[in-house]
User: Fold this.
Amino acid sequence: MIHFVGAGPGASDLITLRGARLLKEAGMIIYAGSLVNPELLKYAEKGCEIYDSAGMTLDEVIEKLSDAHGRGIDAVRLHTGDPSIYGAIREQMDRLKELGIPYDITPGVSSFCAAAAAAEAEYTLPSVSQTVIITRMEGRTPVPDREKIRSLAAHHASMVLFLSSGMLEALSSELIAGGYEPDTHAALVYKASWPEQKLVRGRLADIPRLAAEAGIDRTALVLVGDFLGDEYELSKLYDKHFSHGYRKAAE
Ligand code: SAH
Assistant:
Protein backbone atom coordinates (compact mmCIF):
# COMPACT_ATOMS: atom_id res chain seq x y z
CA MET A 1 0.00 0.00 0.00
CA ILE A 2 1.17 3.52 -0.78
CA HIS A 3 0.29 6.26 1.71
CA PHE A 4 0.29 9.90 0.67
CA VAL A 5 0.86 11.77 3.92
CA GLY A 6 0.69 15.47 4.72
CA ALA A 7 3.78 16.30 6.78
CA GLY A 8 2.32 19.52 8.18
CA PRO A 9 3.95 22.94 7.82
CA GLY A 10 7.34 22.17 9.36
CA ALA A 11 7.40 21.62 13.13
CA SER A 12 7.83 17.87 13.54
CA ASP A 13 5.02 17.62 16.09
CA LEU A 14 2.52 19.16 13.69
CA ILE A 15 2.16 15.97 11.66
CA THR A 16 -1.04 14.05 12.48
CA LEU A 17 -0.93 11.00 14.77
CA ARG A 18 -1.91 8.88 11.78
CA GLY A 19 0.84 10.39 9.64
CA ALA A 20 3.46 9.67 12.33
CA ARG A 21 2.20 6.08 12.69
CA LEU A 22 2.41 5.51 8.93
CA LEU A 23 5.99 6.85 8.92
CA LYS A 24 6.84 4.42 11.71
CA GLU A 25 5.32 1.48 9.83
CA ALA A 26 6.82 2.38 6.45
CA GLY A 27 9.50 0.31 4.73
CA MET A 28 10.11 3.16 2.30
CA ILE A 29 9.66 6.93 2.57
CA ILE A 30 9.91 9.36 -0.31
CA TYR A 31 9.83 12.89 1.06
CA ALA A 32 9.79 16.28 -0.63
CA GLY A 33 13.16 17.40 0.70
CA SER A 34 12.89 21.00 -0.47
CA LEU A 35 10.16 21.73 2.11
CA VAL A 36 9.57 18.79 4.43
CA ASN A 37 11.45 19.09 7.72
CA PRO A 38 13.99 16.22 7.75
CA GLU A 39 13.38 15.95 11.51
CA LEU A 40 10.19 14.08 10.62
CA LEU A 41 12.32 11.19 9.45
CA LYS A 42 13.04 10.45 13.10
CA TYR A 43 9.64 8.70 13.13
CA ALA A 44 10.99 6.11 10.65
CA GLU A 45 12.29 2.76 11.87
CA LYS A 46 15.92 1.77 11.31
CA GLY A 47 16.30 0.09 7.94
CA CYS A 48 13.54 2.12 6.29
CA GLU A 49 14.60 3.13 2.77
CA ILE A 50 14.49 6.91 2.50
CA TYR A 51 14.57 8.97 -0.69
CA ASP A 52 14.42 12.72 -1.24
CA SER A 53 12.15 13.49 -4.19
CA ALA A 54 13.76 16.93 -4.74
CA GLY A 55 16.08 15.49 -7.38
CA MET A 56 13.63 12.94 -8.81
CA THR A 57 11.20 13.06 -11.75
CA LEU A 58 7.59 11.80 -11.62
CA ASP A 59 8.70 8.62 -13.45
CA GLU A 60 11.43 7.97 -10.87
CA VAL A 61 9.04 8.48 -7.95
CA ILE A 62 6.49 6.10 -9.49
CA GLU A 63 9.23 3.57 -10.20
CA LYS A 64 10.28 3.57 -6.52
CA LEU A 65 6.69 3.34 -5.26
CA SER A 66 5.90 0.52 -7.65
CA ASP A 67 9.10 -1.28 -6.61
CA ALA A 68 8.00 -1.02 -2.94
CA HIS A 69 4.57 -2.36 -3.85
CA GLY A 70 6.16 -5.26 -5.79
CA ARG A 71 8.19 -6.21 -2.71
CA GLY A 72 5.13 -6.01 -0.45
CA ILE A 73 6.53 -2.98 1.41
CA ASP A 74 4.33 -0.12 2.67
CA ALA A 75 5.62 3.19 1.33
CA VAL A 76 4.91 6.74 2.47
CA ARG A 77 4.99 9.58 0.00
CA LEU A 78 5.50 12.52 2.34
CA HIS A 79 4.33 15.93 1.14
CA THR A 80 4.67 19.26 2.88
CA GLY A 81 1.61 20.83 4.52
CA ASP A 82 -1.51 19.22 3.14
CA PRO A 83 -0.98 17.30 -0.10
CA SER A 84 -4.11 18.75 -1.74
CA ILE A 85 -2.59 22.25 -1.94
CA TYR A 86 0.05 22.57 -4.70
CA GLY A 87 1.11 19.04 -3.82
CA ALA A 88 1.20 17.47 -7.32
CA ILE A 89 -0.39 14.32 -5.94
CA ARG A 90 -3.10 13.91 -8.58
CA GLU A 91 -0.57 12.90 -11.25
CA GLN A 92 0.97 10.34 -8.89
CA MET A 93 -2.42 8.89 -7.92
CA ASP A 94 -3.45 8.58 -11.56
CA ARG A 95 -0.25 6.71 -12.40
CA LEU A 96 -0.70 4.36 -9.44
CA LYS A 97 -4.30 3.75 -10.52
CA GLU A 98 -3.11 2.83 -14.03
CA LEU A 99 -0.64 0.39 -12.47
CA GLY A 100 -3.31 -1.08 -10.17
CA ILE A 101 -1.35 -0.06 -7.04
CA PRO A 102 -3.58 0.79 -4.03
CA TYR A 103 -3.06 4.04 -2.13
CA ASP A 104 -4.67 6.22 0.49
CA ILE A 105 -4.26 9.81 1.66
CA THR A 106 -3.69 11.26 5.12
CA PRO A 107 -4.30 15.01 5.30
CA GLY A 108 -1.90 17.43 6.95
CA VAL A 109 -1.90 20.89 8.50
CA SER A 110 -1.39 23.24 5.59
CA SER A 111 1.05 26.12 5.90
CA PHE A 112 -1.81 28.61 5.46
CA CYS A 113 -3.16 27.40 8.81
CA ALA A 114 0.27 27.63 10.45
CA ALA A 115 0.68 31.14 9.01
CA ALA A 116 -2.62 32.25 10.57
CA ALA A 117 -1.46 30.78 13.87
CA ALA A 118 1.83 32.69 13.61
CA ALA A 119 -0.03 35.92 12.93
CA GLU A 120 -2.65 35.12 15.62
CA ALA A 121 -5.24 35.76 12.93
CA GLU A 122 -8.70 34.49 12.00
CA TYR A 123 -9.35 34.53 8.24
CA THR A 124 -13.13 34.50 8.57
CA LEU A 125 -14.02 37.46 10.77
CA PRO A 126 -17.71 38.45 10.98
CA SER A 127 -18.44 41.64 9.00
CA VAL A 128 -14.91 41.54 7.49
CA SER A 129 -14.73 38.46 5.29
CA GLN A 130 -16.28 35.00 5.24
CA THR A 131 -14.13 33.76 2.38
CA VAL A 132 -10.50 32.71 2.07
CA ILE A 133 -8.91 32.80 -1.37
CA ILE A 134 -5.86 30.57 -1.73
CA THR A 135 -3.95 31.38 -4.86
CA ARG A 136 -0.54 32.18 -6.32
CA MET A 137 1.19 34.43 -8.78
CA GLU A 138 1.78 32.83 -12.12
CA GLY A 139 5.15 31.13 -12.35
CA ARG A 140 6.15 28.29 -14.65
CA THR A 141 2.71 26.85 -13.89
CA PRO A 142 0.17 29.05 -15.66
CA VAL A 143 -2.80 30.45 -13.73
CA PRO A 144 -6.08 30.48 -15.73
CA ASP A 145 -7.01 34.00 -16.93
CA ARG A 146 -10.23 34.15 -14.93
CA GLU A 147 -8.20 33.58 -11.73
CA LYS A 148 -5.67 36.35 -12.17
CA ILE A 149 -4.73 38.07 -8.89
CA ARG A 150 -6.22 41.30 -10.16
CA SER A 151 -9.72 39.84 -10.55
CA LEU A 152 -9.57 37.83 -7.31
CA ALA A 153 -8.50 40.95 -5.43
CA ALA A 154 -11.75 42.64 -6.42
CA HIS A 155 -13.59 40.43 -3.90
CA HIS A 156 -11.73 41.92 -0.92
CA ALA A 157 -11.82 38.48 0.67
CA SER A 158 -9.05 37.25 2.97
CA MET A 159 -6.24 36.15 0.66
CA VAL A 160 -3.33 33.75 1.08
CA LEU A 161 -0.67 33.78 -1.61
CA PHE A 162 1.47 30.68 -2.00
CA LEU A 163 4.60 30.36 -4.14
CA SER A 164 4.83 34.10 -4.70
CA SER A 165 7.38 35.47 -2.25
CA GLY A 166 9.97 35.90 -5.02
CA MET A 167 7.60 38.23 -6.93
CA LEU A 168 6.40 40.60 -4.25
CA GLU A 169 6.63 43.85 -6.27
CA ALA A 170 4.44 42.41 -9.01
CA LEU A 171 2.13 40.77 -6.47
CA SER A 172 1.57 43.94 -4.51
CA SER A 173 0.92 45.96 -7.75
CA GLU A 174 -1.56 43.39 -9.01
CA LEU A 175 -3.46 43.33 -5.72
CA ILE A 176 -3.62 47.12 -5.68
CA ALA A 177 -4.65 47.25 -9.36
CA GLY A 178 -7.42 44.77 -8.46
CA GLY A 179 -8.90 47.12 -5.88
CA TYR A 180 -7.13 46.66 -2.57
CA GLU A 181 -6.13 49.98 -1.03
CA PRO A 182 -2.33 50.33 -0.80
CA ASP A 183 -2.71 50.60 2.99
CA THR A 184 -4.60 47.28 3.31
CA HIS A 185 -3.15 45.18 6.13
CA ALA A 186 -0.74 42.49 4.93
CA ALA A 187 1.69 40.06 6.48
CA LEU A 188 4.45 37.78 5.33
CA VAL A 189 5.12 34.56 7.20
CA TYR A 190 8.41 32.81 6.52
CA LYS A 191 8.72 29.13 7.49
CA ALA A 192 5.63 29.11 9.67
CA SER A 193 6.06 26.76 12.65
CA TRP A 194 9.79 26.14 11.99
CA PRO A 195 12.27 27.35 14.65
CA GLU A 196 13.42 30.02 12.18
CA GLN A 197 9.88 31.33 11.58
CA LYS A 198 9.63 35.06 10.80
CA LEU A 199 6.53 37.22 10.78
CA VAL A 200 6.48 40.59 9.07
CA ARG A 201 3.41 42.81 9.38
CA GLY A 202 2.75 45.90 7.33
CA ARG A 203 0.63 47.44 4.61
CA LEU A 204 0.24 46.02 1.15
CA ALA A 205 2.31 48.70 -0.57
CA ASP A 206 5.22 48.20 1.86
CA ILE A 207 5.39 44.40 1.80
CA PRO A 208 8.09 44.13 -0.91
CA ARG A 209 10.37 46.50 1.03
CA LEU A 210 9.69 44.86 4.39
CA ALA A 211 10.41 41.43 2.88
CA ALA A 212 13.70 42.64 1.42
CA GLU A 213 14.68 44.15 4.79
CA ALA A 214 13.89 40.85 6.52
CA GLY A 215 15.73 38.90 3.79
CA ILE A 216 12.67 36.82 2.86
CA ASP A 217 12.35 35.65 -0.74
CA ARG A 218 11.17 32.04 -0.40
CA THR A 219 9.22 29.56 1.72
CA ALA A 220 6.80 32.25 2.75
CA LEU A 221 3.14 33.06 2.51
CA VAL A 222 1.66 36.47 1.92
CA LEU A 223 -1.54 37.19 3.82
CA VAL A 224 -3.66 40.12 2.71
CA GLY A 225 -6.92 41.56 3.93
CA ASP A 226 -8.79 43.48 6.58
CA PHE A 227 -8.85 40.35 8.77
CA LEU A 228 -5.37 41.49 9.85
CA GLY A 229 -6.82 44.80 11.08
CA ASP A 230 -8.58 45.66 14.33
CA GLU A 231 -12.21 45.97 13.30
CA TYR A 232 -14.76 43.17 13.29
CA GLU A 233 -18.07 42.16 14.82
CA LEU A 234 -18.46 39.59 17.57
CA SER A 235 -19.55 36.15 16.39
CA LYS A 236 -23.20 35.07 16.56
CA LEU A 237 -22.10 31.65 17.82
CA TYR A 238 -21.09 32.98 21.24
CA ASP A 239 -23.50 35.94 21.34
CA LYS A 240 -25.57 35.67 24.53
CA HIS A 241 -28.64 37.12 22.75
CA PHE A 242 -28.58 34.45 20.07
CA SER A 243 -30.01 30.92 20.42
CA HIS A 244 -28.82 27.92 18.45
CA GLY A 245 -29.08 24.14 18.55
CA TYR A 246 -26.75 23.83 21.56
CA ARG A 247 -27.57 26.91 23.60
CA LYS A 248 -30.61 29.09 24.42
CA ALA A 249 -30.29 32.89 24.35
CA ALA A 250 -30.26 34.70 27.68
CA GLU A 251 -33.62 36.35 28.54
N1 SAH B 1 1.15 21.60 0.34
C1 SAH B 1 1.79 22.75 0.96
C2 SAH B 1 2.17 23.83 -0.04
C3 SAH B 1 3.22 23.41 -1.03
S1 SAH B 1 3.64 24.67 -2.17
C4 SAH B 1 0.89 23.28 2.09
O1 SAH B 1 -0.23 22.80 2.26
O2 SAH B 1 1.33 24.16 2.82
C5 SAH B 1 5.07 25.38 -1.47
C6 SAH B 1 4.79 26.78 -0.96
O3 SAH B 1 4.04 26.69 0.23
C7 SAH B 1 6.02 27.59 -0.59
O4 SAH B 1 6.56 28.25 -1.70
C8 SAH B 1 5.44 28.58 0.38
O5 SAH B 1 4.73 29.60 -0.30
C9 SAH B 1 4.41 27.73 1.09
N2 SAH B 1 4.91 27.12 2.34
C10 SAH B 1 5.08 25.82 2.60
N3 SAH B 1 5.46 25.63 3.88
C11 SAH B 1 5.50 26.86 4.44
C12 SAH B 1 5.76 27.34 5.76
N4 SAH B 1 6.06 26.52 6.77
N5 SAH B 1 5.69 28.68 5.98
C13 SAH B 1 5.35 29.53 4.99
N6 SAH B 1 5.08 29.14 3.74
C14 SAH B 1 5.13 27.81 3.46
Q: What stands out?
A: Residues 9-10, 35, 79-82, 85-87, 110-111, 114-115, 162-163, 189, 191-194, 219-221 surround S-adenosyl-L-homocysteine (CB under 6 Å). Residues 19 and 203 are 37 Å apart (CA to CA).
